[in-house]
Amino acid sequence: MKVLGIDPGLGRVGVSVLEKTGSAYIIQDSLLIETPPVEIPRRLELIEISLNKIIQKNKPTYMVTERLMFTKNVKTALDVSKALGVILLVGEKNSIPWIEYTPTQIKQFITGNGAATKKQVEYMASKILGVQTMSKSDDVNDSIAIGLAFLLQARSSALIKMYTNIK
Q: Any idea which residues carry the catalytic annotation?
């Protein structure tokens, strides 16, 4: 199972493809899509083009994004929502089912603590993935955590289902 983890944004979109093979969790691909400060339609087009390329290259089974949570800057929320709309459209056009998690859910799935810090999430993700260091980009690291949360949650759901079927 391959999952496309996406940390939505307009200027910066973190993207990663993770795969679970056997008991290992592997980062297949990751990148930061950065759009220049030009007109919003052009930025959205750049996001679309880049996402289509990574989807065609990696053929993910699922797409997971972080739920947008904004309390202060409404303009930023609206711009990121536009980018998320393009991200969802690209997923739909490529027939990739979409899942969305809150930041608390992502932290809970990876660390067992929904109030974990970003550093704690990165630390646990690196241990689970068996990598010494994570990306230098927070956006890419967030996309990795988002994808990993799905793989860990899917594993838990499968174990629960298997246990329930045994009874």
A: 7, 66, 139
